């Protein structure tokens, strides 16, 4: 991949700290993570892992860190093969939506882990890849080779297709549900979609290509990785790039932000890079073995105490304690675990 030259901050970092005490660590360190809202009593927290090379979705019980189920999603070979690449859970925890990297989005009922739908979003090699669900639980947005497809959750049917041009990839939706931010792996800009009109309302120039994207819990900033050694920060109010930070890590890809907004955990070449979102400086890099390839995915539990990380080359899912930023468990997973999402499921 093309290396990004070192870029300076475009504005003083102190401006970020003025945005919100929550996103800039109004509670510091491990205490900040512990202060996140606890999961409601009677819920069952599960990690859902999309396995790209054996057409399945794994369900991990996070209380025991044991595999609870393995759900087939089509076949791993043939013209309509399934290569699960992304997973998103509805806010009520009742459904998992999985993009299969080829032509369809699969729907799984989390109460019994049964497949209840397959939504074909285009011809073969349309490559539905990344997913995001609106906070009201009504719409799934999925990026494809040249567009974003909106799926109506009530009917599991396509509501509209938003044509963008080539290579949209990552997608994240603001907490108020009004905007979707879409990355672009081949051109130096991103798209912003108005989720009410499903129209592109802005394009944001970036110093390099863009891959992963996550939005802070207060909705004020989008964090974006470039697939190489840098990440960007975008002010969502103005849709302007306000910082671009070069790191020592490489192959920065997917990322997740803690519920209190104080840290970003970024999947990197040989571990997970932890960023202080107030200073936008790396705090540490947590080694996670992946035998010469980038870590695939990262997701954080609703209480903020743990991060789950997929390592495709080693077929493992690592569990990180965010209080110590250390790996506390490692689970064997089916072939090539890719994306991971965590949700509270009704018992």
Q: Report how far the terminal alpha carbons are from each other.
A: 45 Å
Would you identify the regions where 5 or more consecutive residues have pLDDT less than 50? 1-23, 25-42
Please tell me what the overall shape is: globular
CATH architecture: 7 Propeller
In sequence order, what are the helices and strands, one letter per element? Answer: HHEEEEEEEEEEEEEEEEEEEEEEEEEEEE
Instruction: State the fourth-level CATH superfamily.
Output: YVTN repeat-like/Quinoprotein amine dehydrogenase
Strand order across the largest sheet: 3-2-1-28
Task: Characterize the biggest β-sheet.
Answer: 4 strands, antiparallel
Rg calculated over all Cα atoms: 18 Å
User: What is the overall pLDDT average?
Assistant: 86
User: What is CATH's topology name?
Assistant: Methylamine Dehydrogenase, Chain H
Q: What helical percentage do the residues reach?
A: under 10%
Number of domains: 1
The CATH class label is Mainly Beta
Total strands: the figure is: 28
Structural class: mainly beta
Query: Hey, roughly how much beta strand do the residues contain?
Result: over 45%
DSSP helical segment count: 2
3D structure, described in words:
The chain has about 350 residues and is mostly beta strands. The chain has a single domain (about 15-345), classed as 7 Propeller (Methylamine Dehydrogenase, Chain H), CATH 2.130.10.10. The protein has two helices and 28 strands. It has helices at about 15, 30-35; strands at about 45-50, 55-60, 65-70, 85-90, 95-100, 105-110, 115-120, 130-135, 140-145, 145-150, 155-165, 170-175, 180-185, 190-195, 200-205, 215, 220-225, 230-235, 240-245, 255, 265, 270-275, 280-285, 295-300, 305-310, 315-320, 325-330, 335-345. Strands 3-2-1-28 form a four-stranded antiparallel beta sheet, with no helix packed on it. Strands 4-5-6-7 form a four-stranded antiparallel beta sheet, with no helix packed on it. It has a four-stranded antiparallel beta sheet with strand order 8-9-10-11, with no helix packed on it. Strand 20 and strand 21 (about 265) form a beta hairpin.
